[in-house]
């Protein structure tokens, strides 16, 4: 677009924007002097300033999408959207009704700061963005916890985390994300996650009993403590099939809570192996999403364990 052409072709100018949002620098490349940009953003004029160096080619109230695009243009090409807006764009609905703001993650070395409706967080842990409708989003686990760190209300944090888990967020990955990030603002989310995990574990045990009934196998001993021939503790199996020497574990939550818990689970499985006990581990989510398949796996593991004992 040649100098001056923009004034005669406003539609052409609009095509170089993000739905009407554009930087002053880009307008300069299109022949619009910066002083003209700012003059056209004065009260009663046709444009408006949304953020430093970012304008809207219109005078009406900006949409939320325009505010998001403005924030991304302001923060630079490496910015990733997180927090409440990223949660909503990934399907969560139970967020508190706070004033609209755009929380962005940028590399630590970037010097841009928060402004207007934009919260800038510089980080050494910039996540790989998920692109949805042209917007770079932090993965749901990161977005949820970034929002929880800023909420401060136990009720709001618990509600948001519970919805995220119900919609498929992994408790294991949520705990891992919590452990990997800054400890600032994590006390309430950590407490809420442990409460959710305890409830989920209880629900998983109920689901495990339903799957067992589908399998047609003899009933296992539930939450049974196992010890070796010297009386040394092995583990407390969620379900233990005595005749087969098969332990069924529904414990993926403990498996990934953190480094110490991961190490404890590996050590537990080693004790099972040393005692000659076969272990079948099942993700709690599969008890509901794939009950028939899990039941078939349980039958196959039981049959293999019986065969192993008979061959020994």
Instruction: State mean pLDDT (0 to 100 scale).
Output: 89
- Please indicate the percent range of residues in DSSP E strands (runs of 2 or more): 15-25%
| Count of DSSP-assigned helices | 14
* Helical amount: 40-55%
User: So what's the oligomer here?
Assistant: single chain
**Integer-rounded radius of gyration:** 27 Å
Question: Which structural traits does this protein have?
Answer:
single chain, 312 residues, alpha+beta, 4-stranded mixed sheet, 3-stranded antiparallel sheet, 49% helix, 18% strand
Chart the SSEs and their pairings.
Elements lengths: L4 H4 L1 H5 L6 E3 H6 L4 H6 L8 E4 L2 E3 L7 H12 L4 E3 H7 L12 E6 L10 E6 L6 E3 L2 E3 L2 H12 L2 H13 L4 H10 L6 H29 L5 E7 L5 E9 L4 E4 L2 H5 L2 H16 L3 E4 L2 H6 L1 H21 L1
Parallel strand pairs: 5-6, 11-12
Antiparallel strand pairs: 1-3, 2-3, 4-5, 7-8, 9-10, 10-11
Helix pairs in contact: 6-7, 7-8, 8-10, 9-10, 10-14
Question: How would you describe the overall organization of this protein?
Answer:
- The protein has 312 residues and is an alpha+beta fold.
- It is 49% helix and 18% strand.
- The strands form 4 sheets. It has a 4-stranded mixed beta sheet. A 3-stranded antiparallel beta sheet has the order 1-3-2.
- A hairpin with a 4-residue loop joins strand 10 and strand 11.
- The longest helix is centred in the middle third of the chain and has 29 residues.
- The chain is elongated and about 90 Å long.
- The model has no long low-confidence stretch (mean pLDDT 89).
């Amino acid at each position: 677009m040649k100098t001056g052409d923009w004034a005669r072709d406003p539609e052409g100018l609009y095509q170089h924007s993000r739905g009407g949002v554009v930087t002053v620098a880009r307008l300069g490349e299109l022949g619009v002097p910066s002083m003209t940009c700012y003059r056209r953003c004065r009260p009663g004029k046709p444009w408006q300033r949304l953020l430093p160096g970012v304008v809207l080619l219109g005078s009406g109230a900006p949409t939320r999408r325009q505010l998001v695009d403005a924030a991304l243009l302001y923060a630079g090409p490496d910015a990733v959207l997180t927090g409440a807006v990223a949660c909503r764009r990934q399907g969560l609905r139970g967020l508190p009704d706070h004033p609209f703001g755009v929380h962005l993650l940028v590399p630590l070395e970037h010097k841009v700061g928060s402004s207007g409706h934009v919260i800038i967080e510089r980080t050494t842990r910039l996540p790989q963005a998920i692109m949805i409708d042209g917007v770079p989003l932090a993965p749901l686990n990161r977005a949820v916890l970034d929002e929880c760190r800023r909420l401060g209300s136990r009720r709001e944090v618990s509600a948001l985390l519970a919805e995220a888990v119900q919609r498929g967020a992994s408790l294991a990955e949520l705990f891992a994300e919590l452990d990997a990030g800054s400890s600032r603002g994590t006390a309430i989310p950590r407490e809420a996650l442990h409460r959710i995990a305890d409830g989920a574990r209880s629900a998983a045990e109920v689901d495990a009993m339903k799957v067992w009934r589908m399998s047609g196998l003899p009933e296992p001993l539930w939450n049974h403590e196992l010890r070796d021939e010297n009386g040394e503790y092995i583990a407390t199996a969620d379900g233990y099939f005595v005749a087969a020497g098969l332990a069924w574990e529904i414990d993926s939550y403990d498996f990934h809570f953190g480094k110490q818990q991961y190490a404890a689970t590996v050590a537990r499985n080693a004790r099972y192996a040393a005692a000659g006990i076969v272990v079948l581990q099942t993700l709690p989510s599969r008890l509901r999403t794939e009950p028939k398949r899990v039941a078939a796996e349980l039958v196959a593991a039981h049959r293999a364990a019986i065969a192993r004992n008979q061959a020994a």
